[in-house]
C-alpha cells in the first residue's frame, strides 16, 4: 500500500511575520525538510504539498534541490478562509 504525506502549507504567516514554509530553523533545514525527512523514515512514499500559487516557484526550487527523485505533487489553495475560522 502506498502512503502519501500531505503537508498543509498555504498559510499566510501573518502572526509569524513572513512565509514560514521555507524559513531555516537549523543548519539551513526548513520545517518542510524535517517533515519530509521524518515521513520518509516512517515509510511514506510520496508527498503532496498544499501551498499558495504565489510561492510555487520558491517551493519547487527548494524541493528540487533537496529531494531529487522523490515524487512531490503541488496543490494550490489560494482562497483563504476569513480570520478566526
Automatic annotation (TrEMBL):
SUPFAM superfamilies xref list: Nucleotide-diphospho-sugar transferases
Known EC number: 2.3.1.157
Residues forming the MobA-like NTP transferase domain are: 6-78
Highest rank taxon of the organism = Bacteria
InterPro entries noted in UniProt: MobA-like_NTP_Trfase, Nucleotide-diphossugar_trans
Instruction: Give the range the annotation lists for the signal sequence.
Output: none
| Top EC category | transferase
* Keywords, sorted A to Z: Acyltransferase, Transferase
Give this protein's Gene Ontology molecular function annotations. glucosamine-1-phosphate N-acetyltransferase activity; nucleotidyltransferase activity
Keyword Coiled coil set for record = no
Question: Per the record's keyword annotation, is Ribonucleoprotein included, yes or no?
Answer: no
Q: Could you tell me what this protein is called?
A: Conserved putative Glucosamine-1-phosphate N-acetyltransferase
Species for this entry: Capnocytophaga canimorsus
The major lineage groups are: Bacteria, Pseudomonadati, Bacteroidota, Flavobacteriia, Flavobacteriales
